[in-house]
Amino acid sequence: MSSAKIIDGKAFAAKLRGDIASEVAKLKAEHGVVPGLAVVLVGEDPASEVYVRNKGKQTLECGMNSYEHKLPAATSQEDLLAIITQLNNDPKVHGILCQLPVPKHIDENAVLAAIDPAKDVDGFHIINAGALATGGDGIAPCTPYGCLMLLKDTLGDLSGKRAVVVGRSNIVGKPMAQLLLKENCTVTIAHSRTRDLAEEVRRADIVIAAVGRPNMITGDWIAKGATVIDVGINRIEGENGKMKLVGDVDFASAVEVAGAITPVPGGVGPMTIACLLNNTLIAACRANGVTPPKLGFGG
Ligand SMILES: Nc1nc2c(c(=O)[nH]1)N[C@@H](CN(C=O)c1ccc(C(=O)N[C@@H](CCC(=O)O)C(=O)O)cc1)CN2
Fold it and tell me: Nearest to residue 176, comparing CAs of 202, 200, 203, 211?
């Protein structure tokens, strides 16, 4: 019989968006500032189109201004950078992001580097990555920050816990490890070259799965009672021939041994956009000399 707590990221994100909306209303009433988020999408990737649509919708629902820039797949890097410069200089825009992935002819790093770090609400700019690594006051990437909120809501103090982060991407694995380190966890970053990956995972109190391989981490890799955060979003064909969404963790076997686990969908995914809105609120506050609220951590 399964005993794991199912961590409801969808409900947590909805509550966080409600708190953000209240703070946005306060910012508007007390300082006359309406946070503005600009989202740039290059091309017609169907999943990206859904994410961008949801970002726009949830931005408006929180009382912020939304600016969408949908560009054809053939847009040159030069033209994309020119739009980013324009957004950097627009005082109504407090947050900017370019939806990833970008088409192959565009250098993703050049795009991320072009965004003003103070408006980089994805937290991907090297200045923000550096601030996170050195304990500075930057902007944290949305998905890892959302994972941290769910972890702290589930476990409270994380000090001394053994955490394994499976995956070493710049946008999830590495910043996740930095955030856990800041919480005084003992952190291992595992990846495709890690020897005896299953054994590394088995040692952990906290497992963060961010590899992008469907159902890779099975229940027999997980320590009894561990907390499992599944960042994977993989579309695979189900038994009925229809496409379905699964994580990097084999939920059916993992739920039998874990103490708590996020589902896919409905776990980490919804936290990404909620944290993006939180970062936009923070950026708007900072741009106007207002101390930002610390939302998502109870209290
Ligand atoms: N510039 C960025 N690009 C991308 C990011 C990012 O944070 N910044 N992350 C992902 C995509 N993403 C947001 O952009 C995102 C992914 C998933 C979800 C989500 O709510 N997932 C749902 C399922 C939705 C579905 O059916 O597909 C869930 O897991 O429950 C939101 C946002 C890559 N690009």
Answer: 211
When computed from its CA atoms, the radius of gyration of the chain, rounded to whole angstroms, is 19
CA distance linking residue 208 with residue 225, whole number of Å: 14
ipTM above 0.90, yes or no: yes
pTM given for the model: 0.97
122 has catalytic annotation: yes
CATH class, 32-128 region: alpha beta
Domains 32-128 and 142-270 share a fold: yes
CA 184 to ligand 1 center in whole angstroms: 28
Spans of all domains in the chain: 32-128, 142-270
**Which listed CATH number (3.90.25.10, 3.30.365.10, 3.40.50.300, 3.40.50.720) goes with 142-270?**
3.40.50.720
Residue where the block lists tokens 């695979």: 236
Residue closest by Cα to atom 27 of ligand 1: 47
Q: How far is the CA of 160 from the centre of ligand 1 (A)?
A: 30
Q: CB of 210 closer than 6 A to ligand 1?
A: no
Average pLDDT per 10 consecutive residues for the chain, totaling 299 residues = 90 98 98 98 97 98 98 98 98 98 98 98 98 94 98 98 98 97 97 95 98 97 98 95 96 98 98 98 98 93
